[in-house]
Amino acid sequence: MKDTMTVDPLIRVRDLSIGFTGRSGITLPVLRNIDVAVRPGESLGLVGESGSGKSTLALAMMGYLKHGLRVIGGEARYAGLDMFALTRRELEGIRGGRLALIPQNSGQSLTPTLRIGAQLSEALRLHSKLPEGEHAVRVVELLEQVRLPDPSAIAGRYPHELSGGQQQRAAIAMALAGEPEALLLDEPTTGLDVTTQAHVLELLRDLAAETGMAMVYVSHDLGAIARVCDRVVVMYAGEAVLEGTTREVLRNPRHPYARGLLASIPKLADARLPLALDGRPPAPGQAGAGCAFVQRCAIAGEGCRTARPELATLPSGARVRCHHADRVGSLPARAPAETGRRVIAESDAILSLGDLSISYARPGILDQLFGRRPTATPTVDGITIALAKGETLGLVGESGSGKSTILKAVAGLLPPAGGRIELAGDGALPPLVDDRRPDQLRRVQLIFQNPDESLNPRQTIAEILAQPLRLYFGLSGEALRQRTEALLESVRLGAHYMDRLPSQLSGGEKQRVAVARAFAAEPDLVLCDEVTSALDVSVQAAVLDLLDQLRRSRNTAYVFVSHDLAVVRALSDRVAVLYQGRLCEIGPAAAVYAAPSHPYTEVLLGAVLEPDPDTAPRLTAADIPERSPPARGCPFQRRCPRKLGPQCDTDMPPWRRGKGGHSIRCHIPHEQL
Amino acid sequence: MAVASIHRRPSFTARFVGVTADITARPSGAIGLGLVTFHLMLAIFGPWLAPYDYKAVDANLILQGPSGLHWFGTDHLGRDTFSRTLLGGREAILVTGIATPIAVLWGGFVGIFFGLVGGKIDDVLMRVVDAFLSLPWILKMLLLIVTFGTGIEVLIPTLAFFYGIPVIRIARAATHDVVARDFVQAARARGHGKMTIIRSELLPNVRDALLVEGAMRWSWMLLAFSSLSFLGFGVSPPTPDWGLMIADARGYMSFAPSGVLAPVLGLSSLIIGINLTADALAKALGIDRAQKAPV
Hints:
Chain A: Residues 11-262, 351-605 form the ABC transporter domain. Chain A: Belongs to the ABC transporter superfamily. By secondary structure, chain A is α/β, with parallel strands linked by helices. Chain A folds into three domains: 2-98 and 180-330, 3-Layer(aba) Sandwich (Rossmann fold); 106-178, no CATH class; 349-672, Rossmann fold. Helices cover 32% and strands 21% of the residues of chain A. The longest helix of chain B is centred in the C-terminal third of the chain and has 38 residues, at 194-231. The A-B interface holds A 278-279, 282, 286, 295, 411-413, 433, 436, 438, 441, 445-446, 448-450, 453-460, 463, 467-468, 471-472, 496, 499-501, 504, 517, 521 and B 1-2, 6-9, 181-183, 185-192, 200-201, 204-205.
């Protein structure tokens, strides 16, 4: 990297400001005075939370502005060309060829009606000088280059026949068709499973090394950045607040925001809750005359309010936009000492699932005529879990592992194909919501992933919270009002939120309202379905903290579903690992996250990306997509790196019991796991 | 932390004013709303504005061309075409003005209900709706009118019934979009009854689509009413009506074209006005009407 410093930059953004004209006619900036350079072969990370301007900056590098945006000042040059001064035709010659973009959701950027091979040939026709006759060979080469198994078969498939990870690889292959000098990647692995994400990132690393491409990697995920980037720019409210080598930014962040952001990321090795970063970034035009971060900064002085800090170069070469960069080191990077584990009595189970199985297969018309049951393998099978009062059970697994399906069945939204759902003191629950008694319904509440979807956009916050209060407690008038206010207080929102609509709240505030709605019912059990995955990291930490406070004060049990192992670790007492709708491992959180573990747990833990430049993911299992669980044998048989032999294909493995209720379902004896 | 300004849900009047302002801010919307308002005013104040009595027959003035006295000439009975055109929309606006809300209400309710319930009942109902829609509307309508006779008391329920059926489709489609969302799932999981879910979760989210659909149905219904009048099943003479006027005057079109042109102008300007308003309303409410093709 050192020797590249002297080379002329490939991408040079100088004092760039971009903004839009607001309703009042005033220009509101979304990017302010950005100065960034990317040299050939270098990989730069742009990191920040939603609204920080990182994607706008990446798109500006290719001379593209989203509708309504315009350049206020400065310039963006690519290989010396002023990208905003070029004609459309000139831009077409650069974009997609010399400078390629890989968007977040490649599944949507691939044309659904064309085979992968045809789409790649088109990219070759547009962006390479290769004669038509050699396209077929080159297509296979490209697919090979992105490590897709059986490339000639993949070329003949349609996008929907590929898994999310394969689609992303196909999109990368398409970007490589023009043999680009630089690649812009906009959250390329967001939404992929942990193992898939780790594989795609390794691929990008290898490609960068092989081809010598420069990369600009936009992400909110510092773990991913740590893996692929040489240098990082931390964005906040449209400004670059910190720029430095990946190692320096992650190890010794010299800006209070970067430090807070790092502290708010849950770590796999740390069972404590991450430290929340309070407040929210200013909206465009609201940053004021001083430092944009001043409202949330713990070390801000009077000067920070009035004067905007300049981007200053530190002795190490890093650049930081802070008046007090020397004092950042005094900020806490970790949560205060252990908040004290709660003691959970083993005896009184609040929820027990007995051999629960769920099938999405519906009987066909002939089966119905002859009264036959559907014969397909159930999506979820053999789930036996007991949850104690006040306990938090984490459910982890990749997409399609049946985590959310189990929650839906417990909530009564999906009828199970077999097995029992028992609630303490109520016996077996009727399978469907319609047959459950109001009191049974009240005791089990559900919080959804995305508050934009789970809150009715046409209801005020007061109306949203009144729904459960009216239904379960028959409250009205003044009593209802008081209770609503108390609920808002309990989730750290004030009474002034009552008359607002969800669209007027930030993501974190919306999720707090969703939490308050669940707790309005005074439930014994709250089902949390990926409740933090739609939120920014700093907001996620605050919501996790809130959930922790609420369970402590009310002794509520949680089933906490997430694909993020570090988040599950931070909140759960016990963890269950699911693969293809079957339990692989269950036990106390500390035991599950340590050896011995199920081969699948090992694969999952190995793929977790940490915001640490020195850890590399351990990728042991092949990244093959699975559509449905195998009919016989171990559910993990097709991908297991430690497969013993034919017995894994034919026999369901036995439960191997360890200490403290730690059980692993594997043919390999407990001692060797 | 910054103190946010107090946000409140806009009241009904505030929203009405806001949407109206949004409609008139678009040239097409302003023209459309202007035309509709103009026609409504005519329907109300027409009798005071008309220069002649609409049923005053004068054998000396049969089929005259436009003149200073008779701007649009006279018809085959010597009646003033201008006066009759001014009044020609009253009956149509009255009948369709009552029938449209009824159609939207019943079609909307049925559509929302079956959109929520789903399953087999929904499948069967939609096939019945398809079957109904596959028949030419004029045939269905004539059948009822021939059976029960003409007159407002038959026309209103007939139009309301037949034009409610396509509304079922729209309401059901809009409901399906909403039902899949998590807040409806959340309400179901809490154990709310179907009627509560319809009232507080679905209706507020489907209402805008129904409003736009209602505006569109109104213009279709006006066309249908005028067609019935043209065929002689609408209003009875001597009441002036655009459809009837066109039917009466078309025989003399070659030498007295103003007799046809005047009612055509009246009818088409109202329908164009409604369509422009409906489109602007859809844009103001943020509904993409291109996605939901009219049935």
